[in-house]
Amino acid sequence: MSRTVYCEYLQKEAEGLDFQLYPGELGERIFNHISKEAWAEWQKKQTMLINENRLNMMAEDDRKFLEERMKEFLFERKDVTVEGYTPPSES
Fold it and tell me: HAMAP family attached here (predicted)?
């Protein structure tokens, strides 16, 4: 049975995550307030950030950087920008 949450990112009721995917208080907040759809969007952005910035997930500074972007993206609805990345044009 799926659970529904009010997704802070989508600003609407949506299917919630099946389990907590991120540790600690932030993970709890994501579990309770972020939908599967929003999390999938973040995963795409995260992969882009890791690749474009050549982040090392073993490095604490890189993990902190990524966590800050995640909070901004999911809870402040700030889009993730990657320097040097140009999205395909919509024309």
Answer: Fe_traffic_YggX
Residues with Cβ within 8 Å of 20's Cβ and at least 6 positions away in sequence, in order, are: 27, 28, 30, 31
Tell me whether residue 89 is in a domain: no
Q: How far apart are CA 81 and CA 48, in angstroms?
A: 9
Quick check: 38 and 10 in contact, CB under 8 A?
yes
* DSSP structure string for 18-74: SS--S-HHHHHHHHHH-BHHHHHHHHHHHHHHHHHTT--TTSHHHHHHHHHHHHHHH
| pLDDT tens-place string over residues 19-60 | 999 999 999 999 999 999 999 999 999 999 999 999 999 999
**Helix 60-75 with 36-52: angle, nearest 10 deg:** 140
Q: Which CATH number is 27's domain given?
A: 1.10.3880.10
